[in-house]
Amino acid sequence: MSTKQNVWEMTLERLDSTMSVLDLKPGVIKYLREPRRILEVSLPVKMDSGDIDIFKGYRVQHNTNRGPAKGGIRYHQDVTLDEIKALAMLMTWKCSLVNIPFGGAKGGIIVDPLKISKRELENLTRRYTYELLPFIGPEKDIPAPDVGTNAQIMAWIMDTYSIAKGYMVPGVVTGKPITLGGSQGREEATSRGAVYTLLSALKVLEIDASNLTVTVQGFGNVGSNAAKIMYDLGFKIIALSDVSGAILNRNGIDPYKLSDYMKDSTLAEYPEAEKADPGKFFETKCDIIVPAALENQITAKNAAHIKAKIIAEGANAPTTPDADPILKDNNIFVIPDILCNSGGVTVSYFEWVQGNDAYFWSKRKVNLQLRDIMEKAFYEVYEFSNKRKLGMRSAALALAVARVAEAMKIRGIYP
Ligand code: NAD
User: In this predicted model, which residue has the larger pLDDT, 356 or 341?
Assistant: First the structure.
């Protein structure tokens, strides 16, 4: 079984273990385990070579009981249907947890976006959007960026959809460029939200926030922005990693300087830090770890070597279920993915609201509203976890699933 197939099973395993906390009928549980709709498409693209290549794409809508489906689109060579199903389900729980009126979805294309030209990338995106036309829309399913996709790709999706409709429909995607109806603060929203939950965790754990050391795995949208926001708040970023490798400097790394350096080079070559072993990245002694790359990074194999006080899960599903009890035994406080990284979808919701109203907010308003939602969600989960003697992950999942089950119960089953 490949690691990617495990992600779906791991997500179901976690759902099943939470069910004992909730008083739900077996049929409800069966219903919540199944994605509502799965779309698989073959995408022909005329390549620069003159030949045609075919790419495989997916869109999974897991649950729409609380509102239109919502979730990112991933472009990565290792995308599998199981992975997309798992990520779609996590989106349902995430939107429910922060109480925004969306269900969950996810999409993906099996492609390494760095290995095709910009023209090929645009054509692939437009063809994918065309295939998705009957299934997406501001009232149905609203894509957003994820690993390997960005604001430009969202602009192409919005443009293709709008051409098909005959008028501009900014609400069909979020994470758009600001000039096309994107929201202030969306690009760094996932990271900002994660930092708000981290600050709340430091407060309840009574940890002094000065002089804390941080390691961040992944230096893309979530990782680089999280590193910058934490750096601005005075945290010391001592180790970073991405696909090119890992770097360490116990005196601290300036993520802004590193970003500038990476315009012409790779993270691993950064001269103001020493090279580190990516395989032992999580063993680095630090106070806070932010996994912000891919799934299945903290496992039963490396969890026992983690010496941090807090893990703030910027990535989706970075920790495997067999690592959870090890982290718990070692008193490591985990801010689970569906809570920690829900700032992205929260500001996506703000963007959707602004686009539908054609009325745009200031960055200050976006960040204040984001902080309110993140803090409220954090304390709800923390209090529930104390009340029911659950870990933060089980508490978050239980609260989120209960809300979806309640919506489903009230709506009833058609016909
Ligand atoms: P991205 O493509 O911008 O960045 C991914 C980063 O991970 C890159 O720096 C890449 O080099 C690195 N990476 C990939 N494989 C790695 C490995 N084996 N070791 C170390 N680094 C590796 O993607 P992103 O949007 O930052 O997403 C990162 C994670 O956050 C994903 O799990 C994604 O689902 C999750 N997430 C993203 C958002 C969002 O708004 N972008 C929202 C919620 C959750």
Answer: 341
- The per-residue pLDDT for 18 is 87
Ligand 1 midpoint to CA 26 (Å): 35
Q: Which two structure tokens, joined as six digits, stand for 405?
A: 């089950």
* Nearest-angstrom CA–CA distance, 310 and 307: 9
Ligand 1 contacts CB of residue 222 (under 6 A): yes
The domain locations on the chain are 35-169, 189-340
pLDDT at 20: 85
- φ/ψ of residue 99, rounded to 5: 60, 45
Any atom of ligand 1 within 6 Å of the Cβ of 292: yes
CATH topology of domain 35-169: Rossmann fold (3.40.50)
**Residue 393 pLDDT:** 97
Distance CA 74, CA 167 (A): 27
Q: Are 375 and 99 in contact (CB under 8 A)?
A: no
pLDDT of residue 300 exceeding 60: yes
11-20, 62-71, 303-312, 385-394: range with lowest mean pLDDT:
11-20
Atom of ligand 1 nearest to the CA of 318: 32
Ligand 1: nearest atom to the Cα of 219 = 9
- Choose which residue among 3, 100, 147 to substitute to test ligand 1 binding: the one with the highest number of ligand atoms within 8 A of its C-beta: 147
Backbone angles phi, psi at 166, to 5 degrees: 95, 0
How crowded is residue 141: how many other Cβ atoms within 10 Å of its Cβ? 25
- The domain defined by 189-340 folds into Rossmann fold (3.40.50)
pTM: 0.97
Residues identified as active-site: 106
Structure tokens at 60: 């999974």
Q: 319: Cβ below 6 Å to ligand 1?
A: no
Nearest ligand 1 atom, CA 243: 11
Task: Output the CA 415–ligand 1 centroid distance in Å.
Answer: 41
Per-residue pLDDT at 343: 98
Residues contacting 281, CB < 8 A, separation 6+ = 215, 217, 239, 241, 246
Q: Which atom of ligand 1 is closest in space to residue 150's alpha carbon? A: 3
Q: Among residues 221, 156, 188, 184, which one has the least CA distance to residue 350?
A: 184
What separation in Å is there between the alpha carbon of 411 and the centre of ligand 1?
36
Hey, which of 242, 244, 320 would you mutate to test ligand 1's pocket, going by the most ligand atoms within 8 Å of its Cβ? 242
> Does 2 have pLDDT greater than 60?
no
